[in-house]
From TrEMBL:
GO biological process per UniProt: circadian rhythm
Gene name of the record: 106094550
Naturally occurring in which organism (per UniProt): Stomoxys calcitrans
Protein's UniProt name: Protein takeout
Family annotation (Gene3D superfamilies): Haemolymph juvenile hormone binding protein (3.15.10.30)
Family: Belongs to the TO family.
Keyword terms of this UniProt record: Biological rhythms, Signal
GO cellular component: extracellular space
Amino acid sequence: MYVKRVVITDGGNNPISLNMELTNLKFTGLKHSNFKDASYDHAKSLTKLRMFVPTVQINADYDMKGRVLALPLNGKGKTKMNIENLGIDIAIRLKIRKENGFLFTDVDKLRLEITEVGNFQINLENLFNGQKDLEASAHALFNNNWMELYEFLKPSITSTIQALMKDRLEKMFAFVPATYFIEDLVYGS
């Protein structure tokens, strides 16, 4: 799965302060996702899904300025992120429409929550303009304290996955009748 651009900004007096632009993002590993639970409430036109993703790898170009603790960051290059054991809950409110004798759905609202993460590792090439010792120290700091870094990035990761999922579902639902995946669907329900 490809994403053109993601921007992460947070300033202020936080221990982590970043302005980061990720471009040309490539997500891999999503095909190994499992649905742990799925339900549909006819009265509310609400679908709830619980997913587990064993591993997601994100490769991208990055441009970043900021600081982590007292460490100033300024780099531009390639990045690779690995997220393991990702739990995701999704709630999708649907609108039902009739077209050419078939019932279709449109995504009215989609809310996504990341409920668990087992590990988060990041590698940023050229973080200190080629100073490999500083780069290695920064990666050790990031990856040994991955939970704090992940919590900082979580809102951007969540909103990106949510927007991707909404876009992909809207495209799929535009062409696949809802009765193929929702039993006993009735127009006006």
